[in-house]
Amino acid sequence: MTHVLRSSHTxxxxxxxxxxxxxxxxxxxxxxxxxxxGIDGFLELVEDGAATGIIAGxxxxxxxxxxxxxxxxxxxxxxxEHFGYWARCSFPVIGIVFSPDHEKSVxxxxxxxxxxxxxxNGPYSINLEYSSETAFTPSNFTLKIKQIIYKYSHQRRSLFxxxxxxxxxxxxxxxxxxxxxxxxxxxxxxxxxxxxxxxxSSTDEEAADAGYRLSWYFPSVSDELQQILKEHLSQIxxxxxxxxxxxxxxxxxxxxxxxxxxxxxxxxxxxxxxVRIEKLLKEHKLSSAYTEGxxxxxxxxxxxxxNDLRNLFVNSHF
Length: 318
Hints:
Helices cover 49% and strands 15% of the residues.
C-alpha cells in the first residue's frame, strides 16, 4: 500500500501559503521541484503589470516544530552551511516560517541575517514574535519586503569569502582583499577584487584598496578579464557610483592623488560616465562636500575644464 508522509503535506501547505500571499501582492512565484539546497522557490517583482527581472529566493519552513503552542514565537532553524550559501547568493533571500495550525506566517530577511559573524559563530536558529510588522502578508510584502529585495538585488559575497569564514581557525569576519601580485590564481584574485570593489557591505577603505588594484593591474591582465571588469562597471548603480566618487574625494583630501587618478581611470571604462556624474549633481544625489571632487573627475575624464559645472554647483553656494 502506498503511503504519503505527513511532512510532505506540511511542506506543500507552506508553499501554497507563500503562493497565496504573493498572488495577492501581484508578484510572480515559481516553486522549485528538485535539487533543494536552501531555496524552495523564486519570486519575481512586478511593476505596472510587467515582470522586472528582479529575482529573490524564498526558503520556506512549514510545521508546528517551528512555532510555539500559542502561535506567537516563530523559529527559523538552519545551519552554518545554509547561512554561508545565502550570503553568497547573487540574489536576496527571504525566509518564511508558516504555521498550518494557526494559519499565519512570519518573514525573515535572510540576506541581512547571513552576516560574517553568524556564519563563523552562529547562532543558526533565529526567533521572531508574530506581530503586524513581522507577519508575512501582502501589505508587508509590498511595503517592507519589496524594498529589501531592491536594496540587496546586486549584493553578493563570493564563494571564496564564505569559505574563508567557515574555516575552523578563522575567528574574524573581515572582508578579504586578495593581492594579485602574489596570488598564483590570478583569475580568482581578479574576481575577488571586483566583488570587494562592488560589494555593498565593503567599507570605503576596502573599496578604495580594491579599486586601486583593479586599475593598477588592468593593463596587464587578459582581454577576457578586462572585459569582465568593464561589464561589471557598466552595471554599477548610483549608490556605488556615489561611493566611488566619495572615495576619490577622500583620496584627494589625503594627498593621495596617484591613487585618486587610478580610481578615475577605473570610472573612465564606464559608458557615458561624465553624463551620469552630471546627472547625480543635478539630482542632488551627491553631498555638497564631494561636489568639487566629482567635477574634477569629469574634467580628468573629458580632458577639459568644466567651470560651467563649478558655477552651477560650487560657486552658487557661496
